[in-house]
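Incident log, support desk, overnight shift.

02:14 A customer reports that sequence design results differ from what the structure should imply. Their input is reproduced verbatim below. On-call engineer (initials T.W.) acknowledged and began investigating.
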């Protein structure tokens, strides 16, 4: 796949765009959004019908906030439209002959939900990847091992962005851990990308094979995505210790692109590629915008993706946003992902995310860091219990349990009903996305 030449030697992949003052950035977004809405309305049967039904026209958009009059889409709409009009659905805004690549959503059952790209969309996608890679400090001198799934998963072709940047790339994919460690030991790549669970698991596997990732392997930067761990300080610190590497969190969304936000070297939130994707953060109940720092649902709108525009896509992810200029000089908004609305459970009126529990468990020394949450109903009230694993701690079970109850109460506001301390390696290890919540509540 051909990629255009792009040469930079400085701190930024695209300095002008990445450091554009907010007022100019927002003018640029508005200009692109007007064109994009008009394009969607004229070329996508779905958007024409949806805008007409909502009584809105693209020419009514004069300010970015006018977008709030336009209807939302979500994963369910995306799936339904594809099934109603195979193969690519009527959200499509180009003829199928112009589509050169499709990815399929992970985790879906039955017919995979496809995300189509034109040649130009794919080029933009890879330029965004290269920008995110550059921001973590990856350079043409680096050797990069891409350890994400290639089979229809949008994270697979992200490797092309690393090649565009000029790094030497190993397209490892999801090879078995032993093989991946062999590649890492033999060829000493410096950067890799995987999930936090897998980075942890791979580090443990290496140690079990007598390889110390901190000294025997050359990995100095680990990019993670797909789970909140990369932004949880204790999880990040634990993985960094194992590998003697720096961890960078990326956020990807298979319904649009692979990664579209990533940490810079300041590692204080993830910069969204705002010249290509517009962000709204909304209260999930009222759908009104929330201020910076207040958690809300991330709603994304594409600004250029032609094959299938996404107008006001409700991601189901709860985030906080920060629009202030980062210490790195970039002006693009920084997001912090708290968790998925679907994974959230409510205990005594308190919203609890698995990532909050992870924060507590991984902050306690002497545990392995693995955990499992079980949510149950008891007399019409939800309760949760925790299973954790003893690591190197010599504390008594009672004392560890006391500490977990205390920290959970402090951090989450609600204690678990029960805490069990298990032997090391009792809980299932994940090689992709960890499943850490068992919900036994009766579904009404
Ligand atoms: Zn930054």
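02:41 Re-run completed on a clean worker. Output:
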């Amino acid at each position: 796949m051909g990629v255009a030449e792009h040469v930079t030697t400085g701190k930024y992949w695209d300095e002008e765009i990445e450091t554009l003052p907010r007022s100019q950035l927002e003018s640029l977004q508005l200009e692109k959004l007007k064109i994009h809405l008009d394009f969607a309305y004229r070329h996508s049967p779905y958007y024409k019908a949806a805008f007409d039904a909502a009584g809105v026209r693209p020419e009514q958009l004069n300010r970015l906030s006018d977008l709030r009059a336009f209807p939302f889409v979500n994963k369910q709409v995306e799936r339904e439209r594809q099934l109603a009009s195979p193969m690519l659905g009527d959200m499509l805004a180009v003829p199928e002959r112009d589509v050169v690549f499709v990815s399929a959503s992970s985790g879906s059952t039955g017919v995979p939900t496809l995300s189509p790209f034109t040649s130009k969309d794919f080029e933009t996608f890879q330029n965004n990847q290269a920008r995110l890679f550059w921001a973590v400090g990856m350079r043409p001198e680096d050797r990069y091992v891409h350890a994400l799934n290639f089979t229809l998963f949008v994270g697979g072709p992200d490797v092309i962005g690393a090649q565009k940047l000029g790094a030497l790339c190993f397209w490892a994919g999801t090879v078995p851990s032993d093989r991946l460690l062999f590649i890492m030991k033999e060829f000493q790549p410096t950067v890799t990308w995987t999930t936090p669970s897998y980075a942890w698991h791979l580090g443990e596997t290496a140690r079990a094979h007598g390889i110390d990732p901190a000294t025997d392997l050359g990995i100095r930067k680990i990019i993670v995505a797909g789970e909140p761990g990369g932004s949880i300080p204790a999880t990040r610190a634990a993985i960094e210790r194992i590998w003697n590497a720096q961890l960078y969190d990326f956020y990807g969304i298979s319904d649009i692109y692979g990664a579209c936000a990533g940490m810079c070297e300041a590692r204080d939130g993830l910069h969204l590629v705002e010249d290509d994707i517009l962000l709204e953060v909304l209260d999930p109940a009222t759908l009104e915008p929330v201020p910076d720092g207040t958690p809300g649902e991330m709603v994304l709108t594409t600004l250029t993706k032609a094959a299938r525009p996404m107008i006001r896509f409700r991601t189901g992810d709860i985030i906080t946003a920060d629009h202030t200029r980062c210490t790195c000089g970039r002006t693009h908004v920084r997001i912090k992902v708290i968790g998925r609305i679907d994974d959230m459970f409510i205990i005594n009126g308190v919203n609890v995310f698995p990532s909050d529990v992870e924060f507590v468990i991984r902050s306690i020394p002497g545990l392995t860091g693995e955990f499992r949450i079980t949510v149950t109903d008891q007399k019409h009230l939800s309760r949760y219990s925790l299973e954790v694993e003893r690591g190197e701690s010599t504390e008594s079970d009672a004392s560890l349990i006391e500490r977990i109850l205390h920290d959970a109460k402090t951090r989450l506001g609600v204690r678990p009903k029960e805490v069990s301390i298990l032997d090391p390696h009792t809980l299932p290890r994940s090689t992709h996305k960890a499943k850490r919540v068992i919900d036994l509540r009766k579904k009404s």
